[in-house]
Amino acid sequence: MKVAYQTDIGHQRKQNQDRVAVFTNKFGNQLLVIADGIGGNRSGDIAAEQTVTILGDQFKNRPPRTLMEGIRWFARETQSINDQILSQSKHNLQMQGMGTTMVAAITFNDAVVVANIGDSRGYILHQNLLTQITVDHSLVNELVKTGDISEDEALKLPQSNIITRAIGISPDAQIEVNRFELNHGDQLLMCSDGLFKTVAKDQIIKVLELPIPLEEKCAQLVKMANDAGGPDNITVLIGINSDQEG
């Protein structure tokens, strides 16, 4: 899979607490990961950095070999990272309350295993249809699921930044893990909430469908989020299951 990514501080934050990376193991599989630190100034960036770094190290040293192994691997490694961050929070006053969201994917030929916790998202673009493949662990999404508000209303509520699950917040890191088939030409989009809360879904699709390099698609999406005010850090990762980028 060809992959490109970009992260940006946005216009209203004092620091970028998003982290993003791509790792390749000895079998040629890739781990794509985004973490969005939470806790304000309480070391959210450290939680995000550690999540990406530790997950990447484990992927290179003890990688899963199959899709089913990938599902179990995500659950085990995320829980381990959660335990480490909780331990640091207990022993370091400056780190109390730190945590991070995560969305990550492992590539296996024409399939991916996708894991998420918090409100960082994953999507697959297939034949002009952009489908969200992660579940937001947020207060407003609970209201959407009960039918109290619509998805569009959820993005506009002040409470849209309240998440119900994250790494480093509770003893049990309840991640969602699923597998998805990838057809030739499908695109995988992963992002922090700084993108999808500011750029409409139809505008994202238009950029993904442009016959331009992946790096330019990432740059355009980041620019659109900043043009919309850039209220948060913005991180975008795009992968395409194809020999060509266009």
UniProtKB/TrEMBL annotation:
InterPro entries linked: PP2C, PPM-type-like_dom_sf, PPM-type_phosphatase-like_dom
Domain (PPM-type phosphatase): residue spans on this chain: 2-241
Domain of life, source organism: Bacteria
Gene3D superfamilies: PPM-type phosphatase domain
Pfam families referenced in this protein's UniProt entry, alphabetically: PP2C_2
Any one Gene Ontology molecular-function term assigned to this protein's record: protein serine/threonine phosphatase activity
SUPFAM superfamilies: PP2C-like
Protein name: Stp1/IreP family PP2C-type Ser/Thr phosphatase
Annotated organism of origin: Limosilactobacillus albertensis
